[in-house]
Structure formats: C-alpha cells, structure tokens
Design brief:
Shape: extended
Distance between the termini: 66 Å
Transmembrane segments: 12-33
Family: Belongs to the PpiD chaperone family.
Domain PpiC: 346-446
Membrane topology: Single-pass type II membrane protein
GO molecular function: peptidyl-prolyl cis-trans isomerase activity
Length: 702
C-alpha cells in the first residue's frame, strides 16, 4: 500500500496535467478539424454583397441547367463546352437573383398569388401559358385542356406535373417582377427639351474648312525620350483605360503525340488485310462488313457527284461498279473507296405528303391507318384540295405549315422508303408508301437536274500513335520539365533549341479552354496556384503533353507599366511630339505661314458636322471637330494649333452651310429615351453588378 501511496503522492500532479492536456487537445482538435472547425475548408464558391453560394447549392443549380440542356440536345449528352456553359449560366442566375432581388425588395416590388393565378385563368393569359397550351391542330389556346391539367395535379403520383407547373409559375413570377422593375426604371429615362434643342442647334450646319496637318510621323520616335515616371503618371491620369480583370499569362511548350512512320505502316497493314476481305465480300453483305470494320459507317444511300466531299473525288466518281480506289489520306484516316452502285437521279425533288401515323409510333392501328390513307388518296385523285387535306389529317407537324412539302436530295436524311419513292418516281406520281412512321400519301411535284448519283463504301482506318510514340513524346516533355525548373532556363533552352513556344494570355479563373490545346482546366488551375516564374510538371491532354511557365500575374485593378508599356509609351511620345510641334508653330498668322514653316500642304475638308467626330480626310478627330465649332474661331480666322490623334492641325473655317434635315425637340427627346429604354434590359444588370461586391471563388473548386 505504501508503494501505491507514494505513486499517488509523487505523480498525482503529473496525471492531472496529462488529463487536462488530453481534454484541451480534444477540444482543439474539434475546433480546428471538426465539422464546424475554424480550419475546415470553406465550401463557399462565391458571394454577392455578403450573401454566400455554397458548393452543394451551386452544384444543384448546375444540374438543373444541365438537365435543360440535355433536353435540347438530340444526343441527350453534354460535351465540355456545354458543361462549362451550364456552370456559367448557374453562376449568372445566382448573381441575377441576389442583385435584382435586393432591388425588388428595396423598392417594394412583388408578384402576388392572385396575379400568378390571373396569368393562368385571366382574360389575357400570359404568352408563356398560351404557348404551352396551344392546340397543335387548331393553333388556338386550349383553355379547357389547361384547366383539366391544373385540376388533375393531385392525381399525378409521380409529382412531375406539379413540378412542371411550379417551374412555370416561378418563371412567370420572375418575368413579371422583372417587367415591373424595368418599367419603373424606364419611366425615369428623360431627355430634357433644352438638351434636345441644343442638339438640334449643334447639328444644324455643315462646315467647310482649310487646314494644314503636321503628322506625328515627321518626328522620329527615337528622338523622343520618356521616363518611367512620365509613363506611370499617364496611367494614373487615365486609369479607366487601363482597368484589368484578374488573369494569368502562361507560356508553354506542347509536345504533340504525332503518329510515326511505323504507326502509319502498322495502320496500312491492318487496312490492306481488311481490304482483301472486302474484295471477297458480296454487295449484299458490304454494309455489315463496313459497319464492323470501318471508322466511316456505311451510308445506304446515293450522293450526287456534285455533293461528293472526298479527296480526289473525280477519280472516285469515275470508278466502275465494284472497283476500288486507294489507299488515300482523308484527314487522319487512310481510306479505300469502293463503288457499290450508280444511277441517274435528280439532285433535288419537291414532294408533298400526308402522314397517318400508325403502329408503334403512337398512331392508329395499322389496318385503320391504311383505310384512312387510301380514302385520302381517292379524295385527292377525285380533285380534293391536297393542302386542305394536309391541314385536316396529317400527323407530320413539321411539314403542316408548308402544306406537307419537303425538298429531298440524295444526301438528305429521310426515312428510306420515303426517300427512295421521292427520288426514283416520275414527276406527277402519287401513291401510298409505308414507313416506320406510318402511311404516307406522297406526290412528286418537281424533279430538278437529273444526273449521276453514287453509292460508295469507305473502308477507313485511323493512323493512331502507338504506345511507343506516346511514351517518347511524354519522355521528351518530362525531360524538358525536369531540366528547366525556372523561367530563365525555360526561355534560354527554347532559344538555344529553336523550339516553338506558345502563349496563353488573359486566362481567367474559370476558363477551361486554351487555344491550341483545347480543354485544359488543370493548367488554368495550376496557373492560379503557382508563383510567377514557376515551371509546371507535365500536363497530359488529348494527344498533347504540355510544360508551362507562369510568366505574369494580373490582379484586378489598374494594369502595371510592364504590361502596357508599348501602348503607354506611344501615347506619351505622341503627346510630347504635339507639344514640340505646337511650341514651334506658336500662334500662326495664316495657313501660308504654317505651310512654309512645316513644309506640309494646305488641304480642304467639307461636310463636317458637330454631331460626328469623324472627318473623311482626317479620320477620327473629335478635338478637331470641337475646334472647328469653337465660337472664338469663326469663318476666316486661323485657329491655334490643335493636338489631334494623328497630328497637329491648324484650321480655318471657310464657311458654314445649313443642313436640310428638319427636326423638332420632341422627336429628338423621344428617340433618345426610346434608345436608352431599349438597352435597359441588357445594360441595367451589368451596371448593378458593377456596383455590387462580387466574390468569385469557383476556380478553387472546378
């Protein structure tokens, strides 16, 4: 017991300290790494005036947009470009909601439930509702059908009808509140009468002038010295001209994976082996053979010779039936072309038809559809109006508006039986044709330009880089990246070896595509995580390996002198040249004196109006136009030297002539107000966005 007591006495304090440290450690762990910890990575992808957009909400918004894009895409899939479009659309919707909703709330603008109901059930339904519930056959708004759908919402166990109606209500509410806001703002657009009258007065005459221009090019740039302080002062005085968004500049080398001679030889061997099999394949089996073995699927139709889009088409078009031409290159494919058939066909046929849908296409039972189309055929042959029958009976909505008419060519995509009838039957023929869609009554109305049409099979194989070729390109890129780890050696090696360096400038945080590379999101993200001068590891893209150096970082604000030096230097030198020329000319007594002093000719300009800063013989010269209409320099007087865009000008107004166009102040005011109001829809949000505090962090997540 005494031993235990000694341990208690000696180590009690130590044990208490250890327990306290354990508790503190647990608390700190939760604070720094727990769910609500201060060290937990933020999931905020953006903010607008302090209101956050969480990653999960943003992803849900993106999904909604993507689903909408899929519905409008025939394939139902999204490529990288459409996915990027969805991300931008979802982000802009968030910005629009937060920025505009704040304006609506501030102004007390709202849309009531009664107003929404009136958009459905009122005397004048919303145009969106009218479009949604328009009868396809009559073209009229079907109010009864709308009421039936509204009343049956509760019976739809899937909830899809309710979801669509809620989406429709939300869209109408947003459009109504937006219309109210725009109407409110547009009523504030005002162009005072006195301004309109002054504008009419300013534009009421044309000037004819004589002048001497001293171009800035008469002074060599090399003789004009400028300092960095002068250039920076110019930027400070013209900050609006040099505003920049956050961006990055990347310089990179692309190591393209290009098929080697060995790769081409391997592709040719495979192609020749399959060509030997094609030679023994019967015409009846050629379609299946091509679709199994070729990268160009078999087109079971005829193409007019004029529409043939292949290399050496004249040689291919002249092949006898059964003959083969090749191999030849078509982009990255090696191809054999085999003539399957040729016949004389029109290059264009105008037909009209009536479709009675049947069978699996959701139409009538097959037997009833056949009886109906036969009765329509008899009616047409008896003299009935074809167009009237189209309006009454056809199930082909696409051609209803044109009286059932289509233009058919050998290369257009129609159902095979329909297309064969249109191309092969004589003009005036009318008969019933059965297709997968149902029964068609088709009349051949006009045939044009009968000529050769060809059916050709293409056995094509790509020349793809082998694994060895790919590995070599990667090894070259990796070797360059490992030996050039800073910008200085990167540039030096490129110059020494004469490599082709490319530049990707003005990369923004959410960019996904780089010209010359394609989809390159990983490279953009690296550019925003790296330091200036850093050299990347090897990026792998489609058949390309890239090594990049981050050569410039631009923060939002005013551009640095290094970025805009050439443009600023040109402007400052031009201003110094103007000062020099003006100091030399002083206050000239006449144009003749200016001619003698500068060795520049006297010239004339006519039809100069105060409302236009463009002079035909000078170009864009607003200062010169202002000087011409300066009351101090009336007709016959010599102006002081005027600093223009292209040179220094000394002017003499010879005469003013009145314009023949009569205007009144009310019309001028109305035209101005209408032009501003029409631009509000697009410009207003941009202005509000500029005035808002927007923080975009999406580049950290995507």
């Amino acid at each position: 017991m005494s031993v235990i007591q000694k341990i208690r006495d000696k180590y009690a304090v130590v044990i208490v300290v250890v327990i306290c440290l354990a508790i503190v450690s647990f608390l700190l762990q939760d604070a720094f790494f727990g769910r609500n910890s201060i060290m937990r990575r933020s999931t905020t992808v953006g903010k607008v005036n302090g209101e956050e957009l969480d990653l999960s909400e943003y992803q849900q918004r993106i999904k909604v947009v993507e689903d909408r894009l899929r519905q409008g895409n025939p394939t139902g899939s999204l490529n990288d470009q459409l996915s990027q479009q969805a991300r931008e659309t979802a982000w802009n919707q968030f910005l629009s909601e937060k920025i505009l909703n704040a304006q609506y709330e501030k102004l007390g603008i709202a849309v009531s439930e009664a107003e929404i109901s009136d958009q459905f059930n009122g005397k004048n339904p919303n145009p969106v509702i009218v479009r949604q519930f328009t009868d396809e056959k009559t073209g009229q708004f079907d109010r009864a059908r709308m009421q039936q759908i509204l009343q049956s919402v509760g019976q739809d166990k899937t909830g899809q009808t309710r979801a669509r109606l809620l989406e429709l209500e939300d869209y109408i509410a947003q459009s109504r509140i937006s219309a109210k806001y725009l109407s409110l703002i547009s009523k504030a657009v005002y162009y005072p009468k006195w301004m309109a009258e002054q504008q009419i007065k300013d534009n009421s005459q044309y000037a004819s002038v004589s002048y001497v221009a001293v171009p800035y090019s008469t002074i060599a740039d090399s003789t004009v010295k400028v300092t960095d302080s002068e250039l920076k002062a110019y930027i400070d005085d013209h900050k609006e001209m040099f505003k920049t968004e956050e961006s990055r500049k990347v310089e990179y080398l692309a190591f393209n994976v290009i098929p080697s001679a060995a790769d081409s030889a391997a592709a040719l061997k495979v192609l020749f082996d399959e060509k030997a099999e094609m030679d023994t394949t019967s015409i009846n089996d050629i379609a299946g053979f091509i679709n199994r073995n070729s990268d160009l699927p078999f087109y079971d139709g005829y193409v007019a010779k004029s529409a043939l889009m292949v290399p050496q088409k004249d040689t291919i078009a002249s092949l006898p039936v059964g003959a083969v031409f090749g191999p030849y290159y078509d982009n990255n494919l090696i191809v054999f072309a085999k003539m399957i058939d040729r016949k004389m066909l029109p290059d264009s046929v105008k037909v009209r038809h009536i479709l009675i849908a049947s069978g699996q296409q959701g139409g009538l039972p097959d037997s009833i559809a056949k009886v109906r189309i036969d009765s329509i055929k008899n009616a047409v042959k008896g003299g009935a109006d074809f167009k009237a029958l189209v309006d009454q009976y056809t199930d082909d909505v696409a051609s209803k508006a044109t009286g059932g008419e289509y233009d058919v060519t050998p290369s257009t995509d129609f159902l095979k039986e329909f297309k064969d009838f249109a191309l092969e039957k004589e003009q005036g023929t009318i008969d019933v044709v059965k297709t997968l869609a149902g029964y068609h009554l088709i009349q051949v109305m006009e045939r044009k330009n009968i000529g050769q049409a060809l059916k050709i099979a293409y056995l094509a194989k790509p020349v793809s880089p082998s694994r060895e070729t790919d590995s070599k390109a990667y090894a070259d890129a990796n070797e360059f990246a490992s030996k050039n780890r800073d910008q200085k050696t990167f540039e030096k090696t490129i110059q020494e070896k004469g490599l082709n360096k490319r530049i990707a400038d003005n990369l923004h945080p959410m960019d996904h595509v780089i010209s010359g590379v394609g989809q390159a999101r990983e490279l953009v993200r690296w550019a925003y995580e790296a330091k200036k001068g850093d050299v990347s590891n090897v990026f792998t893209f489609d058949n390309t390996y890239v090594v990049a150096v981050l050569s410039a970082i631009r923060e939002e604000g005013t551009a640095s002198l290094d970025e805009v030096r050439p443009a600023v230097e040109a402007e400052v030198k031009k201003h110094k040249k103007a000062e020099s020329i003006i100091a030399e000319l002083k206050s000239p007594a006449s144009l003749d004196a200016v001619v003698k002093a500068t060795k520049q000719p006297e010239q004339k300009a006519e039809g100069i109006n105060f409302g236009s800063p463009f002079i035909a013989s000078m170009g864009y010269e607003p200062r010169v136009v202002g000087a011409i209409y300066n009351p101090a320099w009336g007709p016959g007087k010599i102006s002081a030297p005027v600093e223009g865009n292209a040179g220094v000008y000394v002017l003499r107004v010879d005469a003013f002539q009145p314009t023949t166009q009569a205007q009144d102040a009310k019309s001028v005011s109305r035209a101005y107000e209408q032009s501003v109001a029409s631009a509000l829809d697009q410009q207003l949000f941009l202005v509000l966005k500029k005035l808002s505090k927007v923080e975009d962090n999406r580049g950290k997540f995507f």
